[in-house]
Amino acid sequence: MSITRRFVLTLAGISAAALMTSPVFADQAADAARTAKAAEMVDTTQFKKEGPLKVGVSAGYLANSWVVFALQHVYWEASLHPEVESVVVTDASFNPAKQVSDIEDLMRQDIDLLVYWPVDDASVEDVLKRAVAAGIPTVQAGGGFTDSEGTIANAYISQYKLGEMVARQLMADIGGKGKIVAMLPIPGTTAAVEQLEALETVLKEFPEVELLSAEYGDWNRGKAKQITENLLQRFPTITGVYSPAGQMSLGMVEAFDEAGRSDEVTFSPGDEYNGWLKWVAANNQGGAVTFPTRAGQVALQVGLEILKGNEVPRGTAVPSEYVSPADIGTLVSPDAPDDWWASALPAEFLPKQ
Predict the structure, then answer these.
(1) By C-alpha distance, which of 55, 56, 58 is closest to 8?
(2) Who has greater pLDDT, 261 or 352?
(3) Which residues are in the Periplasmic binding protein domain (predicted)?
(4) Which domain holds residue 56?
(5) Are 142 and 60 in the same domain?
(6) Is residue 108 situated within a structural domain?
(7) Do residues 145 and 315 lie in contact, with contact meaning Cβ atoms separated by under 8 Å?
(8) pLDDT at 79 over 60
(9) Dihedrals φ, ψ of 59, to 5°?
(10) Is the model's pLDDT at 186 over the cut of 90?
(11) Per-residue model confidence as pLDDT tens digits over 198-246
(12) Any bridge partners for residue 322, and if so which?
């Protein structure tokens, strides 16, 4: 298999409508509606193709280590299928307009399948519709679930369920009372919207917990640290931190440490970012709720089923799991860099350190 590397990635976003009138149940109902929509089966006979196959991967960005590992899973899965002749990857570098151009360029290269991570769902919707109309199936990978017309299928991680697991563990760890801050990813993305929905829904069960502020750190350790420094100046007491992304959690830890206030705060579980896992192992706190990088592999598996003309679910969930601090040794790699992710990738497909 020959691999052409021109890097790319993204994260998906959807707007969820509440289906129940009670505000306490609104977000659970929206999540249930998404799950039901994901279970719908899609007829893909129109996309059936014989090999050799060219796979296009449009990434909204590759500046994030999770994305790098997810892409390596795409390469690994591609290597297992002789009919996949090449994988062409583009990197939009957080630029929605560039991602549209990237996808148009991939279409001109006669790709047979498009796997994508969007910078912004709305920006790419039109070009995805054009890809589908041209006979190119599209699979969204690694973000939340989207049922837009231009997306044939999703390999998705439920940001709502992940956020709920993180929130409930934090509530247990702080004893259901106190003052907390939240650190969320890029504003407007599925991850940010659904994680906040999950937190706010859980907080309705804990009236003695006050959400002081919800901030957006863009999955960036340095930005999360800077924001936290400001939060520490604004709030004399912070009991807990809700931060599902380990990379941002680690930046927040650094800010609390430098302010001499680490003893006052309890951190929620993060994800499998290795720097965060090292901190959990050293401090016996927080744990992890996994955000599996194998979502990239699952997306390609789904895409290849589409190219066989087989029915596929509109959404294939890649489930998150809670790993306690006591069990974090199953995930952490003490000798690997912080920008590393727990995965089952074979050695030959691991990113270069």
Answers:
(1) 58
(2) 261
(3) 55-311
(4) 2-157+293-320
(5) yes
(6) yes
(7) yes
(8) yes
(9) -105, 135
(10) no
(11) 999 999 999 999 999 999 999 899 999 999 999 999 999 999 999 999 9
(12) 289
Q: What is the amino acid identity at position 187?
A: P
First to last CA, the chain: 23
Average pLDDT over residues 79-102: 97
- Same-domain check for residues 227 and 297: no
Which pair of tokens denotes residue 289? Answer: 């709720």
Assess whether 284 and 189 both reside in one domain.
yes
* Per-residue confidence (pLDDT) for residue 327, from 0 to 100: 97
Decide if 113 contacts 55 (C-beta within 8 A). yes
To 5 degrees, how large is the angle CA 21–CA 24–CA 26? 50
Considering the domain architecture, whether residues 153 and 164 belong to the same structural domain is answered as no
Query: 329 lies in a domain?
Result: no
Domain count, the chain: 2
**Do both 105 and 181 map to the same domain?**
no
Is 306 found in the same domain as 230?
no
By the 8 A CB rule, do 77 and 297 touch? yes
Phi, psi torsion values for 113, nearest 5 degrees: -150, 140
336 falls within a domain? no
Residues contacting residue 268 through CB under 8 Å, at least 6 positions apart: 166, 167, 169, 170, 173, 240, 241, 242, 243, 244, 249, 286
Domain with residue 15: its CATH number is: 3.40.50.2300
The token duo for 300 is 């390609």
Instruction: Tell me if 335 is assigned to some domain.
Output: no
